Here is the input.
Amino acid sequence: MPEDRAAAPLARPTHLRPDALANRWRVLAAAARQLDGPEGLAMNALAREAGVGVGTVYRHFPTRQVLLEALGAEGLEGLVAAAERAADGDGGEDALAQLLRAGLRRQLADPALATVLAEPTAACTDTAAQLERLRGALEAALAHGRATGRVREDVDADDVRRLLCGLARAVDAGPGRASPSARYVDVVLQGLRPPAP
Amino acid sequence: MPEDRAAAPLARPTHLRPDALANRWRVLAAAARQLDGPEGLAMNALAREAGVGVGTVYRHFPTRQVLLEALGAEGLEGLVAAAERAADGDGGEDALAQLLRAGLRRQLADPALATVLAEPTAACTDTAAQLERLRGALEAALAHGRATGRVREDVDADDVRRLLCGLARAVDAGPGRASPSARYVDVVLQGLRPPAP
Amino acid sequence: MPEDRAAAPLARPTHLRPDALANRWRVLAAAARQLDGPEGLAMNALAREAGVGVGTVYRHFPTRQVLLEALGAEGLEGLVAAAERAADGDGGEDALAQLLRAGLRRQLADPALATVLAEPTAACTDTAAQLERLRGALEAALAHGRATGRVREDVDADDVRRLLCGLARAVDAGPGRASPSARYVDVVLQGLRPPAP
Amino acid sequence: MPEDRAAAPLARPTHLRPDALANRWRVLAAAARQLDGPEGLAMNALAREAGVGVGTVYRHFPTRQVLLEALGAEGLEGLVAAAERAADGDGGEDALAQLLRAGLRRQLADPALATVLAEPTAACTDTAAQLERLRGALEAALAHGRATGRVREDVDADDVRRLLCGLARAVDAGPGRASPSARYVDVVLQGLRPPAP
DNA sequence: AATGAATGAGGGTTCATTCAT
DNA sequence: AATGAATGAACCCTCATTCAT
Here is the structure.
C-alpha cells in the first residue's frame, strides 16, 4: 500500500527556502508538461524531466494526489474567484451561466483542475478550503436563480459541480472542442431551468 | 511503443475450438472482475486470475483495447438493441428519453461500456459496426424529435453520445448514484428541447 | 507490505524445464556467494550477479525467505540424514554428541542452514518436512540418552535445536572457529547430562 | 563505502550544551523504540521519529555502530557492575552462575546490549573500556571457580562472553523465553564444571 | 493452440549522506 | 549547534512482451 502517507490533510508549505521554492516550481512545471502528454504522472520520470532528484519530488509532494492538487491549485483558485465574482452578481449576465462557462473553459485548459474537481476527497486542506468556497459561490448563484424563478429547485451546488465534470467529459469524448462547448453548456443551462408547468 | 499492433481493425473470431472458446470466456470473466476492482487491466495478473497462460490472453486479445471492447461488446449490443427499439417508436414514451435513460443505466452497470462509448476510435470492426448502428438509432430518434418540435436542431447523434458520456461522469463524480441519475437525465432532456422562442 | 506473497507454503518445483533448472541453479549459486559477503540478499544484485533478469529470480523464489530455505535445503537434508544415522544408533559414539558436532559443523559451513535452523516458521513445505524429520531424530537420540541415564529429563528436541543455534552463535561471536567449537560442544554436552544427585 | 568514518575509536562527548544533551536523549530514546520494532536503524526514520534534523543525528552519532554502542552503553555498564559485584564474591552464590544469569537476562531485555556484546571490535573507547572491565570480572570469577575446582581449566573470559551470546541466541531461536532461559543457563553452568575424572 | 519461462524496462520508494542556511 | 533540503544510488516489485516447448 504505497499511497498511505499523508493520511492527515496536508497544508501548503509556507516560508520555503528560495532554492526549495525554485525546485517546487520546476517540478510543478514538469508535471504540467507530463499531464499534457498521454502518460500518467510517474514520479521518477517527473524528477528526470524536472532535473531534480526523486527524493526532492517526494519531499515536496509525498503523494501523487498531493501533486495533482498542487497542480490544479492555481486553476482552482481562478475558478473560485470567477465564481465568487459571478455570484456577487455584478448584474451583467446570469450568474449560473457565467459559472458554467468559466468552469468548463478552465477545465479544458487545465486537466489538473478537471481531476481535482472530480475527486471525492481532497488531500490538502487548501484544496478542501477552495472547494468549500466554490460550493458557497455556487450555492449563492443557485439561490439567486431560484429566487428569480430561473433555476429549478431540486439542484444543489454539488450537482452543479458534478454537471461541470460531466460537461468536460462530454467535450473530451469527441473531436472538436470549441463549437460543442458552447452548445453543451447551453443544453445544461436550459436543462437547469424550472420545468415548464 | 507497446501498443502498435493491430492497427488494422480486428474482426471477431469465428469458429473457435471449444477449449479456446472456454479460455476466451475465462479471460473475459476475469477481466470483468478486475475492472470492478481499482487496478488497471494487467495482462499478467489477468492470466493468473483466469488460470490461463499469458500467451493465451495475447492470442485472444492482442491489445488491451481489443480486450476492453470485447468486454464492453455485450453491453454495447444491449444498448444498441434498446436504442433501436426506442427509435422504432413503439410509441410508448419519448424515444430520446428512453435512450438517455438506458444509456446511462447501462454505463453505470458496465464500466467497459462507458469506456468504449467514450473512446475516439474502435479497434474491432465489430465495435465500429455497433457504434454505427447506435448512431443510426440516435439519429432516427433525433429526427423524430425534431419533426415533432421536441428536440433542438443543433444537436446530432454524436452530441447525444458525448452527452451520455458526460452524464455517466457526472454521476460518478460524486456520492450517490441512484437519485442523481434521474435528475441529471432530466436536466439534459429538458436542455435538449428547442429553446423557447 | 511486500512480503505477503507465498502465504501458502510453497512446495519445491518438480519437472522444471531444463533451461529453467539451469537458471534456478545460477541464482542459488550467486545467492550462496552473496551470503558469504557482508551484504544482505538483494534480489536485484542477485539477478545481476547471476546473469539473469530480476523477474526470473522472483519467479523461482517469490520471497527472500523462500530463497533462503532453498539455499539451506541441501545443508538441511545433509544434517537430517546425519541425525537419523546417529539416532539409528550405529553404536559407535554417543548419538547426541554426534548430532551436536554435526549440527555445529554444518551450520558453520553453511550460513543458510544456520538461518533456516533458527527461523520460527518455514515458508516451504519441504523445509517444514525436513525440520520435522530432524525433530524426530533428535527426539530419538534424546530418548535413548535418557534411557541410559546420560541425558537430563527436562530437555526436548526443540531445546537441542535452539542450543545448536546458540552454539553457532557462540562460535561466530569471536575470533577463531576451530578450537572453540569442540570445547563449546563439549560444554553443552556435559551440561546436558543429568545433574549429579 | 559509507561506513568508513570514525575508524579511530570515539570518546564519549563531555560538556554538551543542555539543548544538545536533550537532543542526544531524544535520538537515543527513538532509537530504542525502533530497535524494538522489526526494522533496522534508519538514520532518516530515526531523525523523523525523534523530531530532530538528520544532521543532528549525525553530529551525535557519526556511525550506526556508534549509535548502537551508545544505545547499549547503559545496559553494558549495568552488566559490568553486576559482574564486578559477583566477582567480588559477596559469597552468596556461585559468581559464575550470577554472571551468566545476569548476562542473559540483560541481553534479553536490551537488544542493543546483545549486539554490542557480540561485536568483534568496539567503535567507542568507552565501550572498549567497559568490555575490558567485563573481561576482568569474568576472569576473576573464573579464577575463583578454578581454584575451588568448580570450573574447568580450558575456558577463559572470552569464552564466557561468547557463550553468553550463544545463550541469548538459543533463547531467541524459539517460542517462550522465560522457562527455557533458566534451563539453558543451567546446562551451560553444568557444562562449565570440570569434567568428571 | 496453449503454456509459462524469461527478460528487462521502469515505476515506486527509502535512505545514507552532504551541505547551505 | 541545529536544521532540513537536496541528491541519487539502490532496492523492491510488477508488467508487457516474446518465444521455445
Remarks:
- DSSP finds nine helices and no strands in chain B.
- Residues 2, 42-45, 54-55, 58 of chain B lie near DNA strand F (CB under 10 Å from a C1').
- Residues 152 and 194 of chain B are 4 Å apart (CA to CA).
